[in-house]
Write a structure and sequence with these properties.
Homodimer. The protein has about 325 residues and is mostly helical. The chain has two domains: about 200 residues, Rossmann fold; about 90 residues, Orthogonal Bundle (Tyrosyl-Transfer RNA Synthetase). About 55% of the residues lie in helices and about 5% in strands. Helix 3 packs across helix 12, helix 4 packs parallel to helix 13 and helix 7 crosses helix 8. The longest helix has 30 residues. The chain binds adenosine-5'-tetraphosphate (AQP). The site of adenosine-5'-tetraphosphate has 19 residues, from helix 1.
Length: about 325
């Protein structure tokens, strides 16, 4: 089976964008692949974060992985900082990463947002660590949302450059797996921006743990337009984003959805979307609270995951050290 690797940062409440762009796709394809899914806590410290919050969020995210359907029969689940090889490899690879390549990363530019003098170096080196996460496991496919396209190109470039320098296929060159639908879920309040954990406007996103009342309020407030036509139209990003969410959740085609809501108003469509969201999220939340009430079991799953992946990571790291002349 081909190897799949991906991860999410435990930086806040995970939202519908993370679910539809990443997690849901991991779950749907898990039986086809040899999967490794990580909670990338080393990435989460690239921006200031409260230690207690980081520790709790890490467990919450692990519980959500399982509650959304990741199954330990198909997947190894672990916390990134529990496998030291990620940090060690990241130092070595940073010595093989031209600064010019990192200077081009748009996520760094937007997250540093004009604070270049004060932002920490870890944020700048974030893409190198991400590349190491993937390369350590000789990964074939990396299922991610559209915003990770550039980081994945960098990962491929780093792997190819390293292999070329040492004239040996040390790394498998991985491919990003970006699905057509749901790869870029937009903010509910400003639909030209992506839905994001760090947006200060709480109404901009649906969190996976939102209760039905909150979901209803957020969808009813979501920005649309005055045309009142329930159709997919790039010129009207608000309604198109809501329709895309509905499309991914129902699996219906754009034509089927437009036909079902022809002549109907936004109110009727939003009610159907709310209904879909609530029925999708309710079972996930139920399972999540069960898992959070049994933390020792959850910790056991994560420990086992780390124990299983560590030898895989160590094999690649040792090979890298050997070709570089370290150790
Ligand atoms: N809006 C989105 N639509 C589709 N996919 C998305 N992803 C993130 N936002 C969307 C995908 O979710 C996975 C995990 O993301 P992450 O937490 O590792 O990275 P992130 O991009 O930092 O997530 P956020 O929510 O956007 O957080 P902030 O606000 O910190 O930037 C990735 O596969 C990502 O593509």
């Amino acid at each position: 089976k081909k190897r799949v690797f991906s991860g999410i940062q435990p930086t806040g409440n995970i939202h519908l964008g993370n679910y539809l762009g990443a997690l849901r796709n991991w779950v749907n394809a898990q039986a086809e692949y040899d999967n490794i899914f990580c909670i990338v806590d080393l990435h989460a410290i690239t921006l200031p974060i409260d230690p207690v919050e980081l520790h709790t969020n890490t467990r919450k995210l692990a519980a959500l992985y399982i509650a959304c359907g990741l199954d330990t029969r198909y997947c190894k689940l672990f916390i990134q900082s529990h496998v030291r090889e990620h940090a060690e490899m990241s130092w070595i690879m940073s010595c093989f990463t031209p600064m010019g390549w990192l200077n081009r990363m748009t996520q760094f530019k937007s997250k540093a947002a004009g604070n270049l003098d004060s932002v920490d170096t870890g944020l700048y080196c974030y893409p190198v660590l991400m590349a190491c996460d993937v390369l350590l496991y000789q990964t074939h496919y990396v299922p991610v949302g559209d915003d990770q396209r550039q980081h994945m190109e960098l990962t491929r470039d780093l792997a190819q450059r390293f292999n070329a320098i040492y004239k040996r296929p040390v790394f498998t060159v991985p491919e990003a797996q970006i699905r057509e639908e749901g790869a870029r879920i937009m903010s509910l309040t400003e639909p030209t921006k992506k839905m994001s954990k760090s947006d200060t406007d709480l109404n901009s996103r649906i969190n996976l743990l939102d209760d039905p009342k909150t979901i209803k309020k957020k969808i009813n407030r979501a920005t649309t337009d005055s045309l009142r036509l329930v159709t997919f139209d790039p010129e009207r990003p608000g309604i198109t984003n809501l329709l895309t969410i509905y499309q991914v959740l129902t699996g219906e085609s754009q034509q089927e959805i437009e036909a079902a809501f022809a002549g109907k108003g936004y109110g009727e469509f939003k009610a159907a979307l709310i209904d879909r969201l609530v029925t999708t999220l309710e079972p996930i939340q139920k399972r999540y609270y069960e898992l959070m009430n049994d933390l020792p079991t959850l910790e056991g799953i994560l420990k086992q995951g780390a124990d299983e992946v560590r030898p895989l990571a160590a094999t690649t790291l040792n090979q890298v050290k050997e070709v570089v002349g370290l150790g």
